[in-house]
Amino acid sequence: MLTPISKAADFLCISVSAYISKCIVFHDESAFSHIDGLLGLLGFALPFITFRLTRVYQPFRYESAINNVMRALAAWLVAQLVLAAISHGYPGSELRGHWLLWWTVIAACALIVGRCAIHVLPSLIRSWRFAPMRVAIVAACSANDDLLGRIAPQVRRVFIPEVIYDPYLSFNTTIGIIPAVKSLAKLKEIVRAEKLREIWIVNSLFQPISVEDLLQAFCDDFVNIRVLPILEVGASTTSVVDDFRGIPILNVMATPERNWETVPKEIFDRVFAFFVLVSISPILIAIAIAIKLSSPGSILFRQHRKGVNGDVFSIYKFRTMYQGADKPGTVVQARKGDARVTKVGRFLRSTSLDELPQFLNVLKGEMSVVGPRPHAVEHDEYYKNVVQHYMFRYRIKPGITGWAQVNGFRGETAEIRMMEARVKFDLYYIQHWSFWMDMRIIFLTLANGFVGRSAY
């Protein structure tokens, strides 16, 4: 995220410094020749060559601001020395030399200020946009090891510990002012009561805590479980798998971060949904009339579905069944030849046209164009107990189409193995998501058509 910002800031510093130094040296505009202009253009290009060679734009998450600034200054000075050497061979070098000197000094000062500002930008973003994260800490022998004192320098004040779980405690106690519990059931009770969304595991090599027990205990809760693999101050951070707001972590079970990489998806969803609804409005009107004429009842059908992190929302679909076909509190998947489905509804379901109103859910931000298909809440309650990692599907926004659907798993899931396969494809999508993967899924959805063999 910061690399484009760094490049833009450096270019701004260099170009503005060039203009200021030109105004200082060249009081007479006629003295500024076309040779000076060409060398000035070269002066804009050379730094970005030396910056690349000296790896100025490498990620500096674990590099001090001083080292980063010194590397940028060294690359800038090398570029200006090369430019000065080239300039020396052309007439008017004395006045141009003053310009290059002023340019070098002013740009160096600007680069120092700019790169220091960019270096602290992540911390500023965290402090402005996010409140400190409320977490539950899981650690063995936490009362004896100055746990919080060892973690605090590494997490950069972005967390607030609410409870500590240590199964090796003899009794419940407090560490500082933080409650420490020995029972997993008590931890679960506090996490739910305080509505915590983060569990951080600080595992000891000698008294490890079972991650499997935690996964089992919180399998139906939308809680992120992460491992902090680095405990000692000054330990190497090069082997970490990921970072969370600047904190080195190993994700065990966690919602994918909604960072700058997801911005294109969010924008695309809203824009795409708006244009689809506008462009197909005649089709929507025709379908609405057909539904109204085919059977009594409402045109749209609403049903509770789970969205990201289990938040329940009302999904919109065209009504395809007779009014009152389902008993209250029960949802039965439509099967081939289902008598509850109207004639118009059978056509709409087989062609997926009944799903078109869900672009309204996308426009509202409840769904995405591409993502795991949401199931009825009643089905979720059943499948979460029989399909492993089933509820992980709701770690991201559900979609109108998805990786499972373009791979043939659409419609009825009459057997458990079919749902297991669908979940497997959904998990693959979550783990390998990219904006271009979304484009591929949309293309495959359009190329394969809307007809599904298992959609009744």
What does this structure look like?
This protein has 456 residues and is an alpha/beta fold. It has 3 domains: 128 residues, no CATH class; 122 residues, NAD(P)-binding Rossmann-like Domain (Rossmann fold), CATH 3.40.50.720; 188 residues, no CATH class. 48% of the residues lie in helices and 13% in strands. The protein is built from 15 helices and 12 strands. The strands form 3 sheets. An 8-stranded mixed sheet has the order 3-4-2-1-5-6-8-7. Helix 2 runs antiparallel to helix 3, helix 3 runs antiparallel to helix 4 and helix 8 crosses helix 11. InterPro entries: Bact_transf, EPS_sugar_tfrase, Undecaprenyl-P_gluc_Ptfrase. This is Undecaprenyl-phosphate glucose phosphotransferase. Keywords: Membrane, Transferase, Transmembrane, Transmembrane helix. It is found in: Membrane. Its EC number is 2.7.8.31.
Strand and helix layout:
Layout: H1 2-25, H2 34-53, H3 65-87, H4 93-129, E1 133-139, H5 147-155, E2 159-165, E3 173-175, E4 178-181, H6 184-193, E5 198-202, H7 211-217, E6 224-227, E7 242-244, E8 247-253, H8 263-279, H9 281-294, E9 300-306, E10 312-318, H10 343-351, H11 358-364, E11 368-370, H12 377-383, E12 399-401, H13 403-406, H14 416-432, H15 435-448
Parallel strand pairs: 1-2, 1-5, 2-4, 5-6, 11-12
Antiparallel strand pairs: 3-4, 6-8, 7-8, 9-10
Helix pairs in contact: 1-4, 2-3, 3-4, 8-11
Percent of residues in beta strands? 5-15%
Poorly predicted tracts of residues: 230-240
Integer count of domains:
3
Helix coverage percent: 40-55%
Biggest sheet, spatial arrangement of strands: 3-4-2-1-5-6-8-7
Structural class: alpha/beta
* Biggest sheet descriptor: 8 strands, mixed
Count of strand segments: 12
Task: Compute the number of helices.
Answer: 15
Ends distance: 45 Å
Order of helices and strands: HHHHEHEEEHEHEEEHHEEHHEHEHHH
Radius of gyration: 30 Å
Please tell me the overall pLDDT. 79
> Tell me, what's the shape?
flat
